C-alpha cells in the first residue's frame, strides 16, 4: 500500500455498495420476474431479455413490452478492532463528538435505492427478432457511513502514539475526530439484441450493450485532535507547537521537519464525480429440445471501463492523504468482467416449469485500479434454481434460490472494510397475475442472506507501512542534518559527541524506533444485508 491509502474515504466501499445480486460489479436482477424466480438463464419471457436474449425468438410473433421497478434496501457492517479487541486505542477515541464505548467498534453503512427501473421491448417475426433492454447493470443506490470506518479511524488512533514518542512522555491519552462519507453509483446499461432461428428449435442471438457509469463520492476526516491527560482536546498541530518551538530554538534546521510531521493531521476532503462509458458485446443461444426441455447459454465479453474524475476537493491539507485515485482529470480502470450464463428449463407437465443454471464471472481478467484483481484467488461463480406453477389461468406462483461464491481466499487483500463482498444465498418468491391474455402483473420479493467474512491483518490496513514511509523520509532528513552539524563541529575542532544537539538527534531516532516497533494488528468482521421488493407489468400486442 502507498501513503495515498491513508484516507481513501468511501469511494471503494461505495463503488461496491450495490443493493443488487450478482458479481463484484454486476447486477443480475434486472426485472420483477427475477425476484420470484432467480433462475432465468433458460426462461422464455420478455422479462428474460437480459438473462436469455436468444430465448426472445421463441415468443409469439408481435410486440412485447415489460416495465419493472425494484426497491432495494441494504446495510453493510464492519465490526473492527485495532491493536487489541479489548484494550485497543479505539476505546480512547471521540468520533463526531461521541466517546467510543469499547475497543471493538461496529461501523454501519446504509444503502437505499427505492427506484431501480428496467425496460424490455421485443419484436418477433417468424425467423427474426429484435429486442431492447435497459436497466441498472451495476451499482444501483446511495450509501452513507455517518461515523466513518475502522480503516479511517485507526490512522487517527495512532496519532497519540506518534505524539508521545516525539514528546518523550505521556502527552496524549486519546484522540478526537470528525468524519462522514456518502456516495452513489449507477451503471446504466442499454442493449440491443438481434436473433435468428437457425431451425424451428434453435435460435442464436448477438447483441451490444452500452454502459454509462455515473458516480459521486463525498466525505471528510477533519478536526483531528489529541486528548491530553487533563481531558482537553487539542489540535495535533497545536499540541506539537511547543515541541516544534523548542526544537527550532535548539536546532533551527529541524523545525520544518517536525512541521511536516504535524501536517499528517491536516483535514482530508473528498468530493469527486466519476463518469465513464463502455461497450459489452453479447452472444447467446437457445435450444428448445422438445415440449419438456429448453437449454440456453449467454456470454458477455469484458467491458472496458475508464472512469474520468471531476474533483472539487481532494486530500487538502494532509501529507498522508494523497488520494491519487480521485485526483481531478485522472482516468481510473474499472472494467466489468466477462460473464458466462448456462441454464436449463424442464416442464414435466404444462403447468409446471423447473429451472436451474449457473454463472461464472471472470473477475481476475477485469482490470481494476491498482490491479486489485490480482489479489483474487479465482472467479466468482453462482448456481441458481427455481420453479413456477400455474395455479389457474390467472395466477402463477414461483420461488427461486441463488448461491454466490467469490474467489476471495483467506484474509483477502482484495477486500477492506471500505470495499467488500461476502458469499451469500438469496431466496425469492412471488406471483404473476394474468390480468388478461395480453397483460400480466408481477409482484415479488427476494432476500440475500450473507455469510460473515473475517479478515485479520498483522499490519492493519497498512498503517505501519504508511507511517513507515513518512518516518523513512523524516529519518533521512534528520540524519542529513546531524551529519551537517557534525561536519561543522569537526571543522571547528569540536568533538561532535560533546555537542548537546546530538542528544536531540538521538531522542528523535529513539522516537522513530518506538513508533516503528508499535504493534498494529487489526481485525474486520464483515457482513451485509439485502432486501429487494419488485413490481412489474408486461404487455403483448
Mean pLDDT: 88
Q: Distance N terminus to C terminus?
A: 58 Å
The helix/strand order is: HHEEEEEHHEEEHHEEEEEEEEEEEHHE
Count of extended strands = 20
Q: What are the low-pLDDT stretches, counting only 5+ consecutive residues below 50?
A: 1-20, 315-322
| Shape estimate | elongated
Question: Total number of helical segments?
Answer: 8
Q: Enter the CATH topology name.
A: Porin
Helix content: 10-25%
**Widest β-sheet, arrangement of strands:** 1-4-5-6-7-9-10-13-14-15-16-17-18-20
CATH class: Mainly Beta
Number of domains: 1
* Largest sheet features: 14 strands, antiparallel, barrel
CATH-level-2 architecture: Beta Barrel
CATH homologous superfamily annotation: Outer membrane protein transport protein (OMPP1/FadL/TodX)
Secondary-structure class: alpha+beta
Radius of gyration based on Cα positions: 29 Å
Strand content: over 45%
